Amino acid sequence: MQTGTLVTLALYFILMIGIGLFAWRKSTDTSEGYMLAGRNLSPGVAALSAGASDMSGWLLLGLPGALYASGLVEAWIAIGLFAGAIANWVIVAPRLRQQTEELGNALTIPEFLANRFPDKAVALRVISAIVIVLFFTVYTAAGLVGGGKLFETAFAGILPNVAMSDYMLGIWITAGVVLAYTMVGGFLAVSLTDFVQGCIMVVALVLMPLVVMFGEGGSAGGSILAVAAEQPGFLSLTEGLTFLGFVSAVTWGLGYFGQPHIIVRFMAIRSVADVATARNIGLTWMAVSVIGAVGLGIAGRAYAMRNGLVVEDPETIFIVLSELLFHPLITGFLFAALLAAIMSTISSQLLVSSSSLTEDFYRLFLRQNASEREAVNVGRVCVALVALAAIVIAQDPESEVLGLVSNAWAGFGAAFGPLIVLSLTWDRMTGTGAVAGLVTGAVVVALWIALGWNADFVGGRGLYEIVPGFIAAWLAIWLVSKATYRHKVATA
Questions:
Q1: Number of domains in the chain
Q2: What pTM was computed for the model?
Q3: The domain spanning residue 189 has which CATH number?
Q4: What span is annotated as the signal peptide, if there is one (predicted)?
Q5: In the predicted model, is pLDDT for residue 473 greater than 70?
Q6: Cβ–Cβ under 8 Å, residues 409 and 250
Q7: CA separation, residue 148 to residues 57, 197, 269 (Å)
């Protein structure tokens, strides 16, 4: 069985690397080409690239696993994310595409913030770059955990003479392929591979739930009703849902405004006029994918119960069913879909981290007159360095994908979300307010996690750290900007 699956995966890896070589020949001569594909992405590529880099292994591992374990109540996260994605495309996308080009042709989010608030340019570039690199290293590690779990679950002992665990082997293979096309082809390679990976993901998320429900051993309606009878409230959106739990779930959508690896796609769209088309494509893709992931979690639990299947780690339900229900070649395609979800996000995060290290540290402090070729090569080195740091973090096989993703998502959402929205929409925002919001959001999230209040808050279920972080950052920007704006007017 493993031979056919490995053949399909090998073909997938070759395709990804081939796209990287194509992109290398097309758009890696300049920093703008390497980091933003020359701001020339078509609506379809930009939309699916944003979606695929957004969803990561969470879509095929974390979300189905949560629904498998706890029932439909976990779908509130998906609902909140979809609402947040709509707002992100409507509020942020067109404004960011226009303003980043008008304000000095900024290539990174820190550079845009520096151009928007020149009086605090250095502080904003340095602090935001530090936040990006630190949180993305953790976020990348979450993706590598997914790759490790795939190989550990599906290919145990595949290379018996290799002196490392199947889990670590999976991490190194996943990281190696991503590095190959990201370092070589830059943003265009990442975007094109994201497009292909997004197509693979949506096909898998439509195919899998249908086969689980209606294929051999499925008996959709009866199996799902049997689970509901055994576990009352399994199909309820409100069973066991507390107010804090509801708020924590739906506020995941706030994180969209501050995810650099997603909003950088808006900067690269061909034109502002193309944003509406990209939005429609992206939201349709997301709706189908999320519904498929929810269906997989519910149907997977029903299938397991009906057939006496024991799934020790709920986050591996996609992997387990792929091996049980499909021909090895199709299983390879499904595993490729999982790797696509993982790799599309990792590559985007590595490139954004690399861009910040190159533009906001190297060219700002070390080599202000660095040539375009030198900057591109430094970017490639930075991609490798961030990847190695993420591999170190991902070494623990007990890591939960959803947990790592939630921490990083909250960190970005609180630190950059209010900052990006207000910088694009509020003329009276000041550089001092921007710095205050950036620091406040990141610090509040870190403290909330450190104190354990995301798990246990005032004696009950914890409150997701993005909520206090986002509110605190918004207030900090508003209050400090009002104070410093008045001061600036008074002394003008």
A1: 1
A2: 0.83
A3: 1.20.1730.10
A4: none
A5: yes
A6: no
A7: 11, 19, 33
Residue 69 lies in a domain: yes
Report the pLDDT averaged over residues 74-92: 92
Decide if 489 is inside a domain. Answer: no
Looking up tokens 């051993």 gives 217
Give one DSSP letter per residue of 186-223, joined into a string.
HHHHHHHHHHHHHHHHHHHHHHHHHHHHHSTTT-HHHH
Give backbone dihedrals phi and psi of 78, rounded to 5 degrees, phi first. Answer: -65, -40
Lowest mean pLDDT among 44-53, 101-110, 338-347: 338-347
In which domain, by residue range, is 89 found? 2-402
In the DSSP assignment, the letter for residue 466 is H
**Token pair for 83:** 């609402």
Contact 63, 297 (CB under 8 A): yes
pLDDT category of residue 489 using cuts at 50, 70 and 90 = very low
Cα separation values, 128 from 231, 342, 361, 407, 442, Å: 46, 25, 11, 17, 10
Say if 161 falls within a structural domain.
yes
* Residue 123 CB neighbours (<10 A): 18
Q: Is residue 94 part of a domain?
A: yes
